[in-house]
Amino acid sequence: MQNTPETPQRLIKKYPNRRLYDTRTSMYITLADVKQLVLDNESFHVVDAKSNEDLTRSILLQIILEEETGGVPMFSSAALSQIIRFYGHAMQGVMGSYLEKNIQAFMEIQNRMAEQSQNLYGGTQFGPEAWAQFMNVQTPMMQNMMNNYIEQSKNLFVQMQDQLQDQTRNMMATFPFAKPPGGKSE
């Protein structure tokens, strides 16, 4: 949700009675309305009406919780458990950035597929039903492609980690107090 100079960011206030008030439309709105703002790529900010505390993330997490409890969940229990384990871990910041970058990459792939499908079919815009059918046929291929992407990313990360470890070892060896791993200090 990016703010553009032409359209100021939409302000939504949350009141103690848990109601959400859209200051642009001067109306109370529901969580479903906020979800629609997200789907429409509308830039917004949710604040506590009394304290002005930023509640945007909290509201977005509520929407995710509702989506996960109804219909077909996106995250397995194992995936949620793994995410929880990263809180308080040294890699917490890295994990958040990693997930964000992978979601961005996935969206770029999705957009590119949509563009290519339009080019293949003479600029015809697929409706939601046609796109769903297309994706059902393409799902195994997409999953395989994403698995390959993840495996390549993992291998690249391991290589980078090995290189950093070697560089650190070489750098530390120049210090007189450094003791090489498995070796004796002189």
Q: Which descriptors apply to this entry?
A:
about 190 residues, alpha+beta, 5 helices, 4 strands, about 10% strand
Brief summary of the model shown:
This protein is of the alpha+beta class and 186 residues long.
Blueprint of the fold:
Blueprint: E1 10-14, E2 20-22, E3 27-29, H1 31-39, E4 44-48, H2 56-69, H3 77-86, H4 92-120, H5 128-173
Parallel strand pairs: 1-4
Antiparallel strand pairs: 1-2, 2-3
Helix pairs in contact: 1-2
Mean pLDDT: 83
What is the number of E strands?
A: 4
Low-confidence segments: none
Largest sheet features: 4 strands, mixed
Strand content: 5-15%
Distance between the termini: 58 Å
Strand order of the largest sheet: 3-2-1-4
Number of helices, counting only DSSP H or I runs of 4 residues or more: 5
- Computed over alpha carbons, the radius of gyration is 24 Å
Order of H and E elements: EEEHEHHHH
Helix content: 55-70%
Structural class: alpha+beta
Shape: extended
Description:
By secondary structure, this protein is of the alpha+beta class. It contains five helices and four strands; from the N terminus they run E-E-E-H-E-H-H-H-H. It has helices at 31-39, 56-69, 77-86, 92-120, 128-173, and strands at 10-14, 20-22, 27-29, 44-48. A four-stranded mixed beta sheet has the order 3-2-1-4. A hairpin with a 4-residue loop joins strand 2 and strand 3 (27-29). Helix 1 (31-39) packs across helix 2. The protein is extended.
